[in-house]
Design goal:
With about 325 residues, this protein is of the alpha/beta class. The chain has a domain of about 200 residues: NAD(P)-binding Rossmann-like Domain (Rossmann fold). It is built from ten helices and 14 strands. A seven-stranded parallel sheet has the order 3-2-1-4-5-6-11, with helices on both faces. Strand 5, helix 5 and strand 6 form a beta-alpha-beta unit. The longest helix has 21 residues. It starts with a strand and ends in a 5-residue tail after the last helix. The model has no long low-confidence stretch (mean pLDDT about 95).
Length: about 325
């Protein structure tokens, strides 16, 4: 049974492809290469350059390769960008996902793993961990677009022979420990990506957005999860669905939070390099604190994180930045 990975030339998707191949799966990738790279796709996987909204192409891929499961990463991911271009986000994340889900169901695909986000929760009250039962009150079109897709999946599963797992990511960072792929997106805004680029001299420093939040040092708190552990959760979700598990939503995070300043300290410490840190005002749409309660993933999916260490996450990200400097990859 072949697995179709959408957005498999992107950051998380390319790691997913390698993890599936490592597990002995057959993999086909669909990616329009708007932000991903052909070179990021493992050579053993079949890459088809197309849009997930192209229903005929998707249907042809499913039929030609015997696809029975989809892992869906394709989409736009920037909170600030979604505030400027909300309709673009609803088109790319929600409408295109609708087309993909419909095509999958109409062509016999009955297992679907969806790349969702902790942004669906908005800014929860208090400083405790966020569970799946926490009210979903997204503060950005990005978060809303993902929550709308979750709702479509739930309704589709109720009406059809179709089951899904929606994994709500917290802050994904790091790179493949074997150096095969990493975060390469042009102009990426992820904190660890930007900070490691600054440490490697690719940027002239980094700006911290807000230093007056009600946290231990005034900067926002985030739960950083290594991308390798995240894709392992997807494999566990696929195994769970194949074993007959019911549809579910599960958080993916470590359950511990680091402030922006603590992460920057880690980058300086691990890299052994200093870089300029500029403090600016708060950024619209940012959440004060976001830390996962991942009990459901650990118990229901039997997910066991293995890389829960901020310095290890940063170290792998720095190693990838060094690789990009040495390589001929165009980014």
């Amino acid at each position: 049974m072949t697995v179709l990975v959408t957005g498999g030339a992107g950051y998380i998707g390319s790691h997913m492809v390698w993890a599936l191949l490592d597990a002995g799966e057959e993999v086909v990738v669909i990616d329009r290469l708007s932000t991903g790279y052909e070179w990021a796709v493992a050579p053993e996987a079949r890459l088809i350059r197309a849009d997930i909204a192209d229903t005929k192409t998707v249907a042809d891929i499913i039929a030609a390769h015997g696809v029975r499961a989809v892992i869906h990463f394709a989409g736009s991911i920037s909170v600030p960008e979604s505030l400027v271009d909300p309709l673009g986000y609803y088109h790319n994340n929600t409408a295109n996902s609708l087309a993909l889900i419909r095509t999958a169901i109409e062509n016999g695909v009955d297992k679907f793993v969806f790349s969702s986000t902790a942004a669906v929760y908005g800014s929860p009250e208090g400083s405790g961990r966020v569970a799946e039962s926490t009210p979903t009150l997204p503060q950005s079109p990005y978060g809303v677009s993902k929550l709308m897709t979750e709702r479509m999946l739930a309704d589709a599963a109720a009406a059809h022979d179709f089951r899904y797992a929606a994994l709500r990511y917290f802050n994904v960072s790091g790179a493949d420990p074997l150096g095969r792929t990493g975060q390469s997106t042009r102009g990426a805004a992820n904190l660890i990506k930007v900070a490691t680029e600054a440490a490697m001299g690719k940027r002239d420093g980094i700006e911290v957005f807000g230093s007056d939040y009600p946290t231990r040092d005034g900067t926002c708190v985030r739960d950083f999860i290594h991308v390798t552990d995240l894709v392992a959760a997807h494999l566990d979700a696929l195994t769970y669905l194949r074993a007959g598990g019911e549809s579910l939503i599960a958080n993916c995070g470590y359950g511990r939070g680091y402030t922006v300043r603590e992460v920057l300290d880690s980058v300086r410490r691990v890299s052994g390099r200093d870089f300029e840190i500029r403090v600016g005002g708060r950024r619209e749409g940012d959440i004060v604190s976001s830390v996962a309660d991942s009990t459901r993933a650990r118990t229901v999916l039997d997910w066991t994180p293995r890389l829960d260490d901020i310095d290890q996450i940063v170290g792998s990200a720095l190693a990838w930045e060094a690789h990009l400097l040495r390589s001929n990859h165009k980014v």
